[in-house]
Specification:
Layout: H1 2-18, E1 21-28, H2 35-43, E2 50-57, H3 61-70, E3 75-79, H4 80-88, E4 93-102, E5 104-108, E6 123-127, H5 134-143, H6 148-151, E7 153-157, H7 160-168, E8 174-178, H8 181-188, E9 202-206, H9 207-215, E10 224-229, H10 236-255, H11 257-267, H12 273-282, E11 284-289, H13 294-307
Parallel strand pairs: 1-2, 1-3, 6-7
Antiparallel strand pairs: 3-10, 4-10, 4-11, 5-8, 5-9
Helix pairs in contact: 2-10, 2-11, 5-9, 7-8, 8-12, 10-11, 11-12
């Protein structure tokens, strides 16, 4: 009997080893949602799952969409509306979690800027046209009766880092930024040699607080998470490991902000270790399983659909979009 147990154990472990993946690609932007992915690679958390585990950064939503549709990544960190859009367009993905709940801020040279209405007639640098954070800003502005096209001058740029650079170089006075670009801007205004030309900047408006106030909800927005792609969806054992390791890595990043900042800056040239550490202290991050975050996601998706159905691919995503969802 004992021999039979041993043989069964060897058979099971042998099968598990045979199913070890040759390569596992984790991809994400220069934002908080990627921090745990980088930690997972650096710590070897998935070394028993795949022979090679690597992190690949994406620069903008267009590159993200290409990676998703061409199968260039196994796990993709992305804005939740992009995940819904891709899913509804036929991409083979499933949202695993939502981990970014609060990283959007209005940063301004004007300390008196307190509300979105104060921006009327002003120019605002805005990253990622038609994606987060643009759609959140426009949704909140619209709820307050602000016609963005007529009453504001939006200057669209490729990324939050580009918007931050415009602020620092005095080419704009206001920008909507996502952490860690906010922390980078605030640090650069006090650093040499940029302090000669850089303006004094202020965290003017917390968009998460605006969300809570305008919609009478908790002051948090389901902004980004990670999705499993392609054939990986058919490996529930691996998916469960990724979900658990991501949550563990996120906790480590919150508790070891300085070390996390150094690790992230080593892999993403645009970011500084100090700014990443600063951003961790002020960002709302929590790895909430997709099924548990569904109500909050559908509230946001519903408003986006009412504004422009194309933002989420024409409809609310069905059960198959949410990992762990109970079929309705």
């Amino acid at each position: 009997m004992h021999l039979g147990v041993v043989c069964a154990f060897l058979l099971v472990t042998g099968i598990a080893y045979a199913q070890k993946l040759p390569r596992l690609v984790l991809a994400g932007p220069s934002a908080a949602v990627s921090n745990p992915l980088i930690r997972m690679v650096d710590s070897g958390a998935l070394a028993d799952v795949a022979e090679v585990v690597e992190f690949v950064p994406w620069r903008d939503p267009d590159q993200l969409r290409v990676m998703a549709l061409d199968g260039r990544a196994d796990v993709l960190a992305m804005p939740t509306n992009v995940a819904a859009n891709l899913y509804n367009r036929g991409a083979k993905l499933q949202l695993l979690n939502v981990s970014t709940w609060g990283v959007l801020w209005l940063v301004s040279r004007d300390p008196a800027l307190k509300t979105l209405a104060d921006l009327r007639g002003k120019e605002l640098a805005m990253p990622f046209r038609g994606d987060m954070p643009d759609i959140v800003f426009q949704l909140l502005a619209g709820q307050q009766g602000i016609d963005v096209r007529k009453e504001l001058r939006l200057r669209y740029v490729a990324s939050p880092v580009d918007a931050m650079q415009l602020l620092v170089m005095r080419q704009v006075d206001h920008a909507l930024l996502a952490e860690p670009a906010v922390s980078m801007a605030l640090r650069k205004t006090g650093s040499f040699p940029l302090n000669v030309v850089a303006p004094e900047l202020h965290r003017s408006i917390d968009l998460q607080q605006e969300w809570g106030r305008v919609f009478a909800r908790a002051a948090r927005i389901p902004q980004a998470g990670i999705a499993v792609m392609g054939a990986l969806r058919e490996r529930p054992d691996v998916v469960a490991r990724i979900e658990a390791e991501y949550a563990r890595a996120l906790t480590w990043c919150r508790e070891q902000a300085s070390a996390c900042g150094q690790a992230v800056a080593a892999r993403i040239d645009l970011l500084s270790a100090e700014a990443v550490a600063d951003s961790i202290a002020v960002s709302q991050t929590e790895a909430v399983p997709a099924a548990a975050a569904r109500a909050e996601l559908e509230f946001m998706f519903g408003h986006l659909h009412a504004k422009n159905p194309a933002l989420i691919g024409g409809k609310l995503p069905d059960d198959g979009f949410y990992a762990g969802a109970v079929r309705r």
